[in-house]
Structure formats: C-alpha cells, structure tokens
Design a protein that fits this description.
- The chain has nine helices and 65 strands.
- The chain has a nine-stranded antiparallel beta sheet, covered by helices on one side.
- Helix 3 runs parallel beside helix 4.
- The N terminus is likely disordered.
Length: 954
C-alpha cells in the first residue's frame, strides 16, 4: 500500500514537472545573439570599409555604434549647413557571428529580430538572404529564418550594414537632421522561438471600465482551438479567465472581455496588469503569450482638449534623444530607468522623441507614468510612401500596447508624408490621433517655439487645442526654466491648452574615440548643447526651476512676518490625484552666529507634519501647522512635500526675518575702546578702524586700496554705477562719535554713498539712488528722462582678481545661479561651492554644477574665499543680487547661439536688477519677467537704498 502511494506521488510530481516544462516550452523564447545592451555586449567579427580601423577584420561589441568602438567616421547631421561638408560619411560594416541552434528547434518557428540598425541592413543565414534589405535606422524588424537554419549544429549569421541608405528618402528623413548620425547594429539582436501554432502579436484597447478589445495575429491554428484570456495584477491579484473559440487556419481574430475592479492607468497612478493569452487544443497548451498593459480611455475632442479617463490633461513634457556619450544611440535599461526617474523628479508627466525610443524606455514610461508622443522619424523631410508605410507598421506593431503612448507623431517640422497618416489608424485599435509636429493640423496646433503673445487666431487667441511640441529651447543656459513661468501661466489661461514639450533633455556630447587631446567630448559646438541635463545627466540650474514651476503643489505668494500663523494657501496642480495622497513636513533651520566665519551649517531646531486636507485637482485650500515656540529663533522655514510613492515633489523655503536681522546676527562685532579715524591727504581720504584701512579717491569716490593687518584686499575700481549715469558733486569727511565717515554726494542716478568705518574695522556702505530731481543742463541718472523703461541691470560694481578666488560660502538663495526670469528653483540656505569655470553646455571634460560664476539671488551674507584676500559682506537690504564674475563664453558656439546676456563691467557687483536669459527668441518676444524694468522718479521719493557691511578683517 505504501509502495503504491509512493509511486502515485512520484507520478504526480513527474507529470507536474512535465506540464511545467511543456508550458514553458510553449512560450515564445527570446534568445539573445548580441548583448542585451551596450553595457553588456557580445563580441562579433567586424569589418569596416572606410575611416578609422577600416579594411581589416577585427572584433566589435554588439550592440554598439561603430564610431564609438573606434571604427569609421563621425558625422553630425547638419553636415550640409553649418559644418559646410559636401557629404556625410558613408562607410559600411560587415558583421559575422556563429551561433548554435538546438535540434528541437526544428519543429518551431524561428525569427531573427533586430532592435535597430543604422541604416540599411542585409541579413544572411548560412550564406542565404533572410529577406529584403531593411531600410530605416530607428525601427525593430524581423525575418523568419526557420528554413535557413541548421538544427543541432552551428549557424553563421552575416549582416551587412550601410550607414548611408540607398533610399534617398531615408537619408532625407534620418540623416539630414539636427542630430548625430551613427552607424551599426546599436540595439540588441535576438531569436524568437515559437511553436508552429502561435500568437504572432496583438494590439489591445483596454478601457478605464476594465473592458478590453484584443486584435490578434495568429499562425497555424489547428481545429478545436480555444483562446483563454486572463489578467494578473502587479501584486499577484488574479482575475476571471475568459474563453473564446478560434477558427482553424484563422490568421486574425478579435476578442472582447471585461474585468471588474481594475485600477486605471494614468501618469500619477501607473497601474499595470499582465494580460495572459493561452492557445489550447483539447486541453493542451499550444502557445502562451504575455503582454503588460494598462487600462485607460483616450478621447480626443477638437476645439476642447485631450482627455485621459475623462480628465482633460495638460502635458508637462520634454524632448529626449536616446543617447549616452560612450554609446551614442546605443543605451541600456539602466539609462532608461535613470532618465525616467529624472523626468519624474522634474515633475514632468510627458516625453517626446524624434524617433521610437528603446523598448526598455517605453517600459519605464509605462511603469513610472509618463505620457509618450511616439514619433516616426522625419526631420524636416519625409520617407517615401512605400518606406513610410512599412516603418509605421513596424513602429506601431512594437509600441501599440504601451499605455504611455497617447499620440503618434508623423515626422517633425515638415518631415511628414500625408499618405501614411492613415497607416497609423489602420494598425491602432485605440485610434490615437496623428499629429504633424510644428503644424496647426487637423485641429491640433503644435506650433514650435511660440512667442509669449503668439496669436492671430492661434493659441490663446485661437480655436484649436494647442500644445507646442517644442518650446523653451535650451541651448547652453538658454530656455528651459528661463521664462518658463511666464509662458506657462499665460498658456494655462486658455481651456484649449494641452501642454508643451521643452527642447531638450540632454546635451548630446559624444565621447570621441578618435580624439587624442585633452578635449574628449563633442557636441558640435552649439548644435547639440541643448540639454537641461549634461551628457552624463549632470543637472543644470533650469532642472530645479522646472521642478518648482511644474510641481503639482503650488504655493500662493506669502512672506513670513512676526504675525505668521503657520498657514499657506496651496493649489493642487495634479491632473488625477487628491493632495490628501501626499505628505508634507516643515522644518525650522537655525545657523550659529559665526556660520560664515566657520565650517558650520544650519541645524534643525524644530519640525513637524503638516496635515493636508482633501484638495481635488484645480482646487486651492489652506494648510496650517502649529507654529513652534522657538520659531523666531530660526533663520529659515522649509516645507517639503512628498507624493504617494515618497518621491520629493519640492522643498520650498522662506526667510523668517528681514535682511537687517541677519546682518546684525552674522556680522562679528569686536569690543574695542579705540575710535575709528579719518584723514584727507591730497585727493585721498583714508578711513582706519582697528587693523583695517580703506583709502577712497576724493575725485572719483572709488575705493583705491583696502588693507588689513596682514594683506591687501584687491577690491577696487568701485563702487561704479550699473544702469545709471552719475557725476560726483562733493566728498565730506566727518567724525561721528567713535565712527569715521566719508560721505560722497552725486548728481544723476546716485544721490549719495556714506562710508562708515567702525572702531573694530567693520566697514559699512549706505547708498541712496534714484532720489535726485532733474538738474539744470538735462543730466540726471536716466539721460535726462524722469521715466526709464529699459533697465535690465542696476546696482554697483567693483573689480576683484578672479585668480585669487577658491570658493564662496553664502547665506541666501542657492546653490545655482539665476537670471531675472529664472529665480525659481533656488532656495534659502547656507550654501558653499568651490571655484569652477564651468561653461554651461560645453565644459564636458570637467562639468561641475552648480556653476560658480553668475548672479546669485537674495544675498544676505557671504564669505568670498581668496586666501589672504578673502572678505565677507552682509546685506541689510532685501532682494539683493550678488554678481560673481563673468562666465566665460563658449569657445565653439556658432553665430546666433546667444549663450548669455552681456554682463556689466567689473567682477563683484551688488544689484537690484539683473538681465533675463533668452529662450531661443529675442527677449521682447518673451513674457513680463524677461523684460527690462522701468521706474518713474518723483520729487519727494526717499530713493532706493542699499546698505552693505564689509568685513575685511583677517
């Protein structure tokens, strides 16, 4: 009896193992012949016909771009324009690879698949053509090679890749473009091994209500076949299984089903499910096919908007190239995940490219929640109809089931073929719209690089749904965050606004394998230096501006005052989520009085949670926390918000006190019984306090020398006015108690500057500007006008030798520099950075962010570190900008790139107005924050004051 039970158990185990193996065997196996990505390659034999390392057989990593592997010749796609080349490089690559095919594959269908190869690709198996030459470098393509294989033996794969296509329209669409032109098998190569009877591919249309339509392409379906459809959730939830009969020899079938309690997909709640389709004959599994899907309903309503799950959407997007400096267009799942997380961290919900991205990037968009505009390549030129039709089918077949894909793009900026528009629709059961990016086409206005006042029956003044598929162009430090808030707020006023896509995510600086000097990375000057991120994803200042401007929680303006009650008004800028799904905390930060004299930093003295009430999208409500008893002891209030996945949305900060409080707190005072003294000798006035001596030129009013006990501080040639005309009227030397005072009076834009030397060596400047009435002869601060409407820089400036400087520690907004129209994204704190000479978008060999040079907002105190020339400055005036030197201009910029506005003279400046940054357009075509300011001076005005303390003591 025991023996029979044992045999029965063994039989059950054996049958279970057989069934499991049979089920596994009935799936489509994916067998890689190459590596899965360029970071995990497989070596193949390779021969390059021209250029570097050509005309000899060697080895190459697959996948890869052959230029990055040291072969051929690099070409940028503007070869015909700025680069003045007669033609692009046209080398060819020959690949060989030997692989084993098991004997049991004989009864299966075997396809060879290429994720992407540039550009024309001929494939041979054992010396025989696998099919017609494939043309088009950005698309997945396959050949059925079942009849060409040797089973149970070694097989030889030969691939001939032409970098330059034999098809003129392919070259026009892909290789006459504003991007790098590479060659080679740059995406993986694999075998797909399926049973003879199988599901080739599917196209799904899953809706928010849990219903689904599945179009199936089938092969070799026998009699008595059924199809089972089931669903599994990401947490293992199982749903009902539906069964459908399938006709024998049927090649196409459509099934419909509906599951209950399915959670919809949207970019804030990217719920995914595994759809499992099983073909069975008389209880035996013929084939199992799995696809990850999301349930969501798309509606495209002309003269209204784009709706997802019944909600009108606004896309916060950017354009992304598939790119890595050491890989070209050959990337990896790691890079895709990195990019997806960076996009979400900037509070973006959408992404567009100029060609279909890697499939692993599409999977990341599905799982993290990003709308995708998926584009057929065609940069200002289109494919011919035959080629375009084939490539659209390949593109849609691969990507149709991704819930992230909500729109198809047919080419870019004129690169569309109207005849292939219908091909998208014919192959897409979801009937996503097809747009022509930059055109006002078929009810969808995607105009590129609109001005702030784009109108004439367009955009805010039009009747079509609008979403610029390119705007906020980011050459060098242009665009992106600069001027974004103005554009965004204006466009949001229209109910027809559906979002926009910045240009671009990355600086496309490729690492040149053929360069041997110190310079290794090539962005072709200003042509590809468009990223909000560097080539290795280094973050520019605009990254944080976008993160704040596009944050789904928006704070209404408020300053913290002595009567602050802990309340703020916040707006929910999500599309789908209630703010009650988020969490929020506050911190009160305090720094020691000597923080700018030591290595100290701010410390948390109080913290707590802020309860967020139910706030639906679009609503504004009050939040409030109990103000702690030690609140006034702090320097900074910070509030951080986190989404349901614990990702930081943003951290906002407010100074708890005014500038004068911080100057009194942080400036060190020394007790001394001595008095400061002043003396005039010829045309010089010398003020002395303790060990500090300052000499002022009585003719110009400028500082001549500054000395302390051990060194000379080379802060000279100032103060000189910025944005004002002045004429010195009088210089007076007085003694007020223990203080020595030099008062310089001016006509014009400056009224007076009072220099006060304290007994302990502290040195104060009290400046009054824009107080003088018009004087005889027509000279005043604004060229004779009481009203000046073009002030883009205003303040005072000094000279200081840059070579001495090693770093700065400061209290104010940071850590990134700002422009007038890009202040958001910086926060109050104690910041410190070493000196660097980074040129934004060019210094790729040593790309250090934040940049050292430039304008810094809301200066309250600073320690400029320059060895024995170091000094400190403290502001009693709020809203003051510190200008630190002048950033170097790019060395390789093409004319018209406008990398930065002109800087005023001098090196160290204290300013109330600074210039704005361009956004691909002249400043006058941007919004209010980009425009010069203006002022009307009236008799009786107190004038504008700027009070600074300098500490030159060592």
């Amino acid at each position: 009896m025991m023996l029979n039970k044992t045999i029965q158990k063994l039989s059950i185990i054996a049958f279970t193992l057989f069934a499991a193996q049979n089920n596994i065997a009935q799936q489509t196996d994916k067998i890689y012949l190459s590596g899965k990505d360029f970071e995990h390659p497989v070596q193949w034999d390779f021969y390059c016909t021209e250029g570097n390392n050509s005309k000899t057989w060697s080895k190459i990593n697959v996948p890869s771009q052959w230029e990055l592997e040291g072969f051929g010749e690099y070409t940028y796609g503007r070869w015909y324009k700025e680069l003045n080349q007669k033609e692009p490089s046209k080398e060819e690559g020959l690949y060989k690879y030997e692989f084993d095919v098991p004997a049991d594959y004989k009864d299966k269908e075997v396809l060879i698949a290429f994720g992407g190869a540039m550009t024309d690709t001929e494939v041979k198996i054992n010396g025989k053509l696998a099919g017609a030459i494939h043309q088009g470098g950005f698309y997945e393509f396959k050949y059925d090679i079942s009849s060409l294989l040797k089973f149970g033996a070694k097989n030889i794969l030969e691939v001939h890749v032409w970098k330059h296509s034999a098809n003129k329209s392919v070259n026009a669409a892909e290789r006459r473009a504003d991007w790098w032109l590479f060659g080679g098998i740059y995406r993986p190569v694999w075998l797909e091994v399926a049973p003879k009877s199988h599901i080739e591919n599917i196209a799904v249309n899953p809706k928010i209500d849990g219903s689904i339509t599945v179009d199936l392409n089938l092969k070799n379906i026998p009699k008595n076949t059924i199809l089972e459809a089931s669903l599994k959730g990401s947490n293992g939830e199982n749903f009902q299984t539906f069964t459908f009969p399938v006709k024998a020899k049927s090649s196409k079938e459509t099934i419909t089903a509906q599951w209950n309690k399915v959670k919809p997909w949207d970019p804030e709640n990217p719920n995914l499910y595994d759809l499992e389709l099983v073909l069975k004959q008389n209880g035996t599994i013929l084939h199992q096919y799995n696809k990850r899907i999301g349930f969501r309903t798309l509606e495209f309503k002309k003269q209204d908007g784009i709706y997802v799950n019944g909600t009108k959407i606004v896309m916060k997007g950017i354009n992304r190239h598939s790119f890595w400096p050491e890989g070209g267009r050959s990337t990896s799942k790691r890079i895709s995940e990195l990019d997806g997380k960076l996009l979400k961290d900037m509070n973006m919900n959408a992404v567009r490219g100029h060609y279909p991205p890697d499939d692993h990037f599409m999977a990341v968009c599905d799982s993290l929640g990003l709308f995708v505009l998926n584009e057929l390549a065609g940069w200002q030129n289109s494919y011919d109809t035959e080629t375009g039709t084939k490539l659209v089918k390949e593109m849609v077949t691969r990507d149709v089931n991704h819930p992230s894909v909500i729109i198809w793009d047919n080419g870019n900026e004129g690169g569309w073929n109207y005849d292939v528009d219908k091909v998208f629709e014919d192959n897409d059961p979801q009937k996503r719209i097809v747009i022509h990016p930059w055109a006002d086409f078929n009810g969808w206005d995607t105009h590129h690089y609109p001005t702030y006042l784009t109108g004439m029956h367009r955009f805010n003044a039009g009747e079509n749904v609008f979403f610029p598929t390119e705007f906020m162009h980011g050459t060098y430090d242009n665009g992106h965050g600069a001027a974004l808030e103005d554009f965004w707020n204006r466009y949001k006023e229209s109910p027809l606004f559906a979002g926009g896509f910045m240009w671009a995510m990355l600086d496309e600086a490729v690492k040149r394998s053929d360069w041997t000097g110190d310079v290794k990375f090539d962005s072709k000057g200003s042509l590809a230096a468009d990223g909000i991120l560097g080539p290795h994803r280094e973050r520019e200042g605009s990254y944080y501006t976008v993160k704040e401007v596009w944050a789904p929680i928006q704070f209404q303006p408020k300053q913290v005052t002595p009567t602050f009650d802990g309340s703020f008004l916040i707006t929910n800028d999500y599309l789908f989520s209630n703010l009650s799904t988020c969490k929020m905390v506050f911190k009160v930060l305090k720094s020691d009085n000597d923080v700018l004299y030591t290595n100290g930093n701010a410390k948390e003295i109080s913290s707590g949670k802020i309860e967020i009430p139910s706030i639906n999208p679009g609503e504004t409500r009050k939040i409030q926390f109990v103000v702690p008893g030690n609140f006034a002891e702090g320097d900074i209030l910070s509030v951080s918000a986190y989404d349901q996945f614990n990702k930081e949305i943003y951290t906002w900060t407010w100074p708890i006190h005014k500038a004068k409080f911080y100057a009194e707190k942080f400036l060190a005072v020394q007790n001394t019984k001595a008095k400061a003294s002043g003396i005039k000798t010829g045309n010089e006035i010398t003020l002395k306090g303790n060990d500090v001596t300052v000499t002022i030129d009585a003719v110009t009013g400028e500082i001549v020398t500054i000395k302390n006990k051990t060194a000379t501080i080379p802060l000279t040639n100032g103060p000189r006015p910025i944005g004002m005309k002045v004429k010195l009227k009088d210089v007076q030397l007085t003694q007020e108690g223990d203080k020595a005072i030099c008062t310089v009076k001016y006509s014009g834009g400056l009224s007076s500057i009072k220099w006060i030397m304290e007994p302990d060596g502290r040195f104060k400047m009290e400046l009054i500007a824009l107080k003088n009435e018009k004087v005889s002869g027509g000279f005043d601060g604004f060229d004779g006008a009481y009203f000046e409407d073009k002030i883009n820089s205003f303040g005072i400036t000094f000279s200081f030798p840059e070579k001495e400087v090693t770093g700065i520690k400061w209290f104010g907004r940071g850590p990134y520099r700002v422009w007038k129209n890009r202040i958001k994204g910086t926060t109050y704190g104690i910041w410190e950075k070493d000196y660097n000479n980074t040129i934004t978008g060019e210094s790729f060999e040593n790309l250090i962010y934040p940049e050292f040079k430039g304008y810094h907002a809301n200066l309250l105190g600073a320690n400029l570190k320059a060895g024995t020339s170091s000094f400190k400055v403290f502001s009693e005036s709020d809203n003051l900008f510190l200008r630190l030197f002048t950033p170097d201009l790019p060395k390789n910029a093409f004319p018209g790139s406008n990398p930065q506005p002109a800087f005023p003279e001098g090196d160290i400046s204290f300013m109330y107005e600074i210039p704005a940054m361009r956004d691909f357009k002249p400043l006058e075509q941007q919004g209010p924050q980009s425009q010069p300011t203006n002022i009307r001076i009236k008799s009786g005005d107190d004038g504008i004051k700027m009070n600074l303390w300098f500490d030159f003591r060592n």
